[in-house]
Amino acid sequence: MTQQPLIDVRNLKKYFPIKTGLFNRVVGHVKAVDDVTFGIHQGETFGLVGESGCGKSTLGRAILQLQKPTSGEVLFDGRSVQQMNAKQLRHLRQDMQIIFQDPFGSLNPRFHIRDIIGEPLRVHQQVSAAEIDKRVVELMELVGLDATRRNRYPHEFSGGQRQRIGIARAIALNPRFIVADEAVSALDVSVQSQVLNLLMKLQKELGLTFLFIAHGLNVVRHISDRIGVMYLGRLVEVGRTEELFANPRHPYTAALLSAIPRPSPHRKQERIVLQGDVPSPANPPAGCRFHPRCIYAQDKCRVLSPELVTLASEHQVACHYPLEALSHSEVI
Amino acid sequence: MAGKLLEIQNLTTGFVTEKGIAKATDRISLSVEKGKTLCIVGESGSGKSVASLSIMRLVDYAGGTIFEGSIRFNGDDLAAKSQKDMINIRGEHIAMIFQDPMSALNPVFTIGDQIAESLQLHQRISRPEAWRQAIDMLQMVGIPDPELRAKQYPHEMSGGMRQRVVIAMALVCKPALLIADEPTTALDVTVQAQILELLRRLQDELGMAIVLITHDMGVAAEMADRIAVMYAGKIVEEGTVLDIFDHPSHPYTIGLLNSIPGLEGTRGEELYTIPGTIPSINNLPAGCRFNPRCVKAEDRCRHQEPGLNEYRTDHHVACWLYSSEGARNTAGSASEVNHL
């Protein structure tokens, strides 16, 4: 992995000011994303997991510059996105797209499907109406929709079909990088597997790079090459999927993985049930942000915030006392 | 029939629409034993929520009507009761919790008030006594500092805490049956684990039966004694949790289990899918409702609807593959279908 990553995120921060009173005085900041560094390689799927409010969606949007980062840098293919002017950025947006969670809220109910899918083409490329129509038909067939239905409205489609429309719109400009923000979370299991298969197929055919944001750990495990675990605005662990699931080194990752309900009545596994709730990102605990809920917390954890350090190849953990690596016979 | 707390027979609940009656549940039969958990699983639109609202007779307020069937609870037929009688049953003997705890709580009353209200409604009890019991209940559902929390409003709590409050509200009268409609769907996995553990503990302590409605086979595997799988208003398979997971028999159940992204090394492989989507109850296919999506569909499936029959001891399936001639003596058929 000496090759340069397609997306290189360096010390990215996104703070939202908390304003109050008559003069909108800023009384503090919600540190939604706080000093995050990681990279995504060409053709890779990077899964980002964490509980609601941990900043995973904000991180995705900050990378796409849909929300301007407070500080830090995002390099796309080696070029700094921050230093681009409006024109360059607009050009870059063709290469970076997003698929949203809610297939009901993300499609304009007053647009025909052909206008929804064709809109990015109209905005970014100077092509004739006939060419747009041809491309829309192509795209609809690619994502498994009946192209004769392109003159219909979003409400005439089911949830899974709408998500396919969202995907068709995202790939319309042949992007290189797609952020899938909870793209399958709202779907039923049988439809979810159809959409996951579609995403994997498109990745193979079009050579896409994905940032796959989700809270459904089974789904992330299935689709991701590498996974990053976020807690209160920080990345606490990054590793290859198999390694991370077999050998979680951060106590939070271990608890998160043990909380997944297994679809098998025989495996009533030992579960680490975390106490309490996620603290507010406006006022995160001092030291390691996980320490109030961590059963292994020591004095050092209460004062000193741990850095993300590399433990094994491609396995990074932000913890002063990482869990022991299991030998392979103990796994399973 | 000893031990059966709730017994539903041939329940048909529907909605009168311009296009005729849309039957959200079509002649379904279910039963729950005292102290046990029944999970109803199925995808959106399968009728599982309407079934639960019918038990509570809340479906009347949602525009639905019970057209046929009986709902026997401790021997009484709830389907024949007036709404006035139901008031005494709801909350005291049968309680319900919903997916979204925020909309189940009144934002302008403190949570202590809301829990005590149910006690004062159903029991002859003084206000201070009701308040005291409300605090005990908050303690029981694991809310730290219950005296202080009882004086707070719903918006001052996190999602997991609110769901605990809703559970406290539901259980304060010690009902014999709790109906939980997707109680953890809106919560994060770590909080979900807390709530499921809480429900299991309270079930042990109070000896109540639970009807748990979920779309998550993982949750069902963990909680259920018995599982009923619903599809387009029908129960297609019913059995013990081990029956359903070890010998899934209906092609829909098998497809559902196979399409869960696996936790064991199948990363990147193509997932099993059930083609198509669940039909609308206004526009059901002829014959078996699953036949257009079924890989094993035969001619008979397209014309004749299969009934729910006992296929193995205490394991019911509504599928022609297991109709009386073929199934009962072919032990191999289940494993064969497993590899669809």
| Estimated structural class of chain B | alpha/beta
What's the total count of β strands of chain A? 12
Structural Rg of chain B: 21 Å
Most residues in contact: chain pair: A-B, 44 and 45 residues
Corresponding CATH superfamily of the largest domain in chain B: P-loop containing nucleotide triphosphate hydrolases
Can you summarize the main beta sheet of chain A? 8 strands, mixed
**Helix-strand string of chain A:** EEEHEEHEHHHEHEHEEHHHEE
Mean pLDDT across every amino acid position of chain A: 89
Give a count of the beta strands of chain B, DSSP E runs of length 2 or more. Answer: 12
Task: Describe the 3D structure.
The complex is a heterodimer of chains A (332) and B (340). By secondary structure, chain A is α/β, with parallel strands linked by helices. Chain A is built from 10 helices and 12 strands. Chain A has helices spanning 56-63, 86-92, 113-124, 129-142, 159-171, 189-206, 217-223, 241-246, 251-258, 299-303; strands at residues 7-20, 25-40, 45-49, 71-76, 79-80, 96-99, 177-181, 209-213, 226-231, 234-240, 309-312, 315-317. In chain A, helix 4 crosses helix 5. Chain B has helices spanning 48-56, 83-89, 101-104, 111-122, 127-140, 146-150, 159-171, 189-206, 217-223, 241-246, 251-258, 299-303, 332-338, and strands spanning 4-17, 20-33, 37-41, 64-73, 76-77, 94-97, 177-181, 209-214, 226-231, 234-240, 309-312, 315-317. In chain B, the strands form 2 sheets. An 8-stranded mixed β-sheet of chain B has the order 6-7-8-3-9-10-12-11, with helices on both faces. Chain B has a 4-stranded antiparallel β-sheet with strand order 2-1-4-5. The radius of gyration of chain B is 21 Å and the shape is globular. Residues 325-340 of chain B have low confidence and may be disordered. Classes of the chains: A alpha/beta (332), B alpha/beta (340).
